[in-house]
Amino acid sequence: MPAPELIRIVSRDSPMALAQVERVRAELAARHPATVTEVVPVRTTGDKWMGDLSKVEGKGAFTKEVDAALLAGEADLAVHCVKDIPADRPLPAGTTFAAFLERDDIRDALVHPDGLTLDRLPDGARIGTSSVRRVAQLAASHPHLNCVPFRGNANRRLEKLASGEADALLLAVAGLHRIGRPDVISEVLTPEEMCSPVGAGVLALQCREDDMLTIDAVSTLNHPGTYREITAERMFLHVLQGHCNSPIAGYATTHRNGDLSLRACVFTPDGKTVLNAHEWAGPLDPATLGTSVAVTLLRQGARELIDSIAH
Q1: In whole angstroms, what is the distance from residue 157 CA to residue 163 CA?
Q2: Number of C-alpha atoms within 13 angstroms, CB side, residue 30?
Q3: How many whole angstroms separate alpha carbon 183 and alpha carbon 176?
Q4: Which regions in the chain score pLDDT beneath 70?
Q5: Residues with catalytic annotation?
Q6: Which of 61, 81, 238, 281 could form an S-S bond across to 289 if both were Cys, CB 3.0 to 4.6 Å?
């Protein structure tokens, strides 16, 4: 099947995002060696705004400019972290997912200058994070710790930590590996200790839906197991209709026998209420599994909980 002579790849311009693009370029080169790739970096609203994301379209603040460049024909392929793509509304008209790359580590990591673990942090220790998901779970499991708002890319957050603006950080394991800084990890938290966000560790490749030549070339990078997991997770989040201030977590797992399960949680911001669901697909397709888990949480009161949180 012929591949394009040139594929222009648009992405956020942060060091991590550009490292992610290099992974995509390498995988494309391995499958389509005659195709040349170029990078089109853009600065997104989410990268420029250091305040509350709910004031600038929530998670969509990290994708709007990338989507615009794709739709304007300035690029042929967009690379997104799935966790940054809103699931409560459809993709921009005229675009489609062409592939999901094989999933990286979904876990969160604690970064402490002296290598302390979460359980060894003293009362009042300041944890840098702006994730409502992490804040709620820390409030539930370690109420003696204080979360302080931390925005900026991972490199910038590490700089803030070094300057003393917090005592420790919570960051994604996958992100630290992507920027070449796994050395700073003090502790890797299990998903049971810190439930992961929907889309954790996955890169999505998005194309214009009428660009079949690029779609056909890019689709060779799709990982079937990851595709099933993300389908379940994003349907779960879509049915819940959460907003950017909703502490929601959920991750699907493909087990050794090929079975798929989905574990998900909804929290109040203070961590005092936690709704849990964990279901196996059995005969269900991934989208139906995601719907089923969402309905289970809605029956527990998730709708009222989410709607009670200001946004």
Answers
A1: 10
A2: 8
A3: 9
A4: 1, 44-62, 311
A5: 84
A6: 281
Report CA Rg, the chain.
19
Give the pLDDT confidence score for residue 44 in this predicted structure.
66
Parallel/antiparallel/unpaired status of strands 95-100 and 126-128: unpaired
Residue 258 structure tokens: 């090929």
Q: In angstroms, rounded to a whole number, what is the distance separating the alpha carbons of residues 248 and 273?
A: 12
Interatomic CA distance for residues 153 and 83, integer angstroms: 15
pTM (two decimals): 0.91
Alpha helices of 199-255 — where are they, by DSSP H?
212-218, 224-240
* Residues 6 or more apart in contact with residue 90 via CB below 8 angstroms: none
CA-to-CA distance for 293 and 278, rounded, in angstroms? 7
HSE at residue 64, side-chain half, CA atoms within 13 A, is 11
Q: Are 263 and 241 in contact (CB under 8 A)?
A: no
Residue type, 68: A
pLDDT digits (tens, 9 = 90+) for 17-26: 999 999 999 9
Query: What is the distance of C-alpha 178 from the center of its chain?
Result: 14
